[in-house]
Amino acid sequence: MKPPTYNPAIQRLDMPARFLKLPVDERGYPVPKFVEWIKGKPDFRCVDGRWLYRCVNANLCWLCGEKLGRYMAFVLGPMCAINRINSEPPSHIECARFAAKACPFLTQPKRRRNGQDLPAEGVPAAGIPLDRNPGMALVWVTQRYTVKRVNTGGVLFSLGEPTKLEWYCRGQPATRDEIMASIDSGLPLLRAEADKDGPEAIAELDQMITRGLALVPA
Questions:
Q1: Residue 44, Cβ neighbours under 10 Å: how many?
Q2: Sequence-distant (≥ 6) Cβ neighbours of residue 176 within 8 angstroms
Q3: Among 20, 63, 117, 170, which one is least packed by beta carbons within 10 Å?
C-alpha cells in the first residue's frame, strides 16, 4: 500500500508514531479518532459523542485512541486555563503537543469556525463554548481530572493541577505577550457569563483569574 502524503504544513513536524496509524483526509491531515465521519468523509467540526464516552470509560487517548498512561494532556484555550474546565477528554502528551502545532484552527489565529451546513442531528458541546479563535493553544499536562455532568446533558472535564504547561502560538512556543493578548481578549467573555449569575460568580471568577495568571510564564 502506498504511504499517505501529508500536508506540507505538517511534514516538518515530529508526528507521533500513533498518528501514523490514523487515516489521512484529502488535505493530507491525519484524522483523529474523535472526528465524526459523514457520508464517508471526516468532518473535523463534528465530534463522535460515542467516542467521548468510550475514552472516559476505557482511559483512551482522545486523539489517537490508544491507552493512556499516568500523565495525560488536555489541549486548551487560555480561558480553559482560567476556569480549569474543558469539553474534551485528555490525550497522550505527544499527541496533544502535535495537535497544538498542527491543527489549522489552533495555528492560524485569524481562522474562524465554519458553522455552515452542519448536520441537523448534531448536538452542541456541553457547557458554554466561547465562539472565538483564541489565537493560541495550551497543552495542560496532569495526572488527574474529574468528569462533571451538566444539566443540559453531556459532560465536562475538570482539570487537575498541572505538572507541566506548554504554550503555543502559530505552532511555535508562545511568548508572554502573545499569551497575555489572548487572555485579555477572552476575559470579557468570561466576565459577561459571570455577570449573569451575580456577585458570587464574579468573585469566584476573580479568584480563578488570579490563580490562572500565576501560571503564565514570566
A1: 17
A2: 216, 217, 218
A3: 117
From first to last of its 218 residues, what are the pLDDT tens digits of the chain? 667 899 999 999 999 999 999 999 999 999 999 999 999 999 998 899 899 999 999 999 999 999 999 999 999 999 999 999 999 999 999 999 999 999 998 898 777 665 555 555 555 555 566 667 888 999 999 999 999 988 777 899 999 999 999 999 999 999 999 999 999 999 999 999 999 999 999 999 999 999 999 999 98
Q: What is the pTM of this model?
A: 0.90
DSSP 4-70: PPPPHHHHTS---GGGGGS-B-TTS-B--TTEEEETTEEEEEEE-HHHHHHHHHHTB-TTT-SBP-S
Q: Which of 63, 23, 50, 44 is nearest to 118 (CA)?
A: 44
